[in-house]
Fold each of these.
Amino acid sequence: MKPRISMITLGVRDLAASVKFYEQGLGFPRMDSPPEVAFFTLSGTWLGLYGRDALAEDATVPSQGSGFESFTLAHNVHSEAEVDEVVNQAVKAGATLVKPPQKVFWGGYSGYFADPDGHLWEVAYNPLFRVGPSDDAI
């Protein structure tokens, strides 16, 4: 079977501001892409940013919405200190702190922030599994 790349696409209200947040604020590596979309390479997946109204139109659903969108994105790191570092980096770049990093019931350490469009990101350290290249095999 050929390897597959998963891609997560977020509908955003201000593409330029979101590109700045992810590229300059969080340091995600941006790929060449057409002006109406931005792609970033991540470990084993891609992140795409696309205008919220245009993405909703493509999916044939209304673009209005508020509150919890029924999903979160997760960024797994190597230590508790790295959780603190990434959450602080996101907040400095314009994210809203939702849940400060802390020990959690499942034995790890995590915190949440919301990006400029309100998408929830969990930054987590899980001592029960290793984060690294060998984790890419699914």
Amino acid sequence: MKTDLFFYTGTGNSLWTARTLAEELGEAGIYPISRTGFAPNHSGADAVGIIFTVNIWGLPRKVIPFINALAGGPGKYYFAIAVNAGQVAATLLQMEKLMECNGFIAGSGF
């Protein structure tokens, strides 16, 4: 299963998480959300992972337009990993609601 991992990082923890996960998955591409010209809705991968830091118990501002640009495809699996030093709080619920507003759902969140 091909997986595209999109990450947003401030200090490098989300990048480390993306690299570690890509190594475990084998066939995975890693793309920075903040610098990507890659249109996420054109990902040819079977699975799309979004890895980000938790900012003030929520999604980072730059991650929100990225999620809004996603388009759910038939059979495509979406998942999220919230990297934090304490509590995720309602961050994954915020992401789930945002994805639902765009017509698709996250398969899981960590």
Amino acid sequence: MPAVPTPFLQPEALKARFEQPPVWQPEVVRESFTSDRPPAQAAVLVPIVMRGPQASSPTVLLTRRAAHMKTHSGQIAFPGGKVDPEDANRQATALREAEEEVGLSARYVEVIGELPVYITGTSFWVTPVIGLVSPDFELRLNADEVADVFEVPLSFLMNPANHRRHAFEWQGSQRQWFSMPYEERRIAPNGEVQAVEHFIWGATAGMLRNFYRFLAANPST
């Protein structure tokens, strides 16, 4: 499958895609393994940071969850969490959680749309909220929830050459999931360049795969 062309990843093109969405189907709606726990409504923010001259090199901000978390500990995730009764809608949930987890203020975020609900194996019904983020933000990580934060080029994530499909047999049935391994280059305090491996998989990779399908679909006629 082809990568999403670079012009389609620019802010105005992303806005136009949500304003006039194509006819499409998400590839992953429900993970192939689910728990018996009651469903919990949740939302995540997919923060597209407008990097580069005229936002020509957008990235996606991701977190690594703290190792002591009860669910999905240590995994790569979007900022997000369960819906609170006080939240006006799913977008409010995503923005609130992003500020609580990494200190990303809503004033830096322009919400442009949502993707279909994604049902995780732990029975979270997650609404991915897509937001364009001004690059002049400052982050304050909540150490109780987030161990690390990093950015991945949107062009990397929207290229299926970087997507891996996994399958295994468990309890008599086949389970499938996606991953998108990414190697980040960081400057160490001593000035050396270090390679940091990020294994993006599970629900985060599944939602990104759906985002790819949404952007790659033929426009509505």
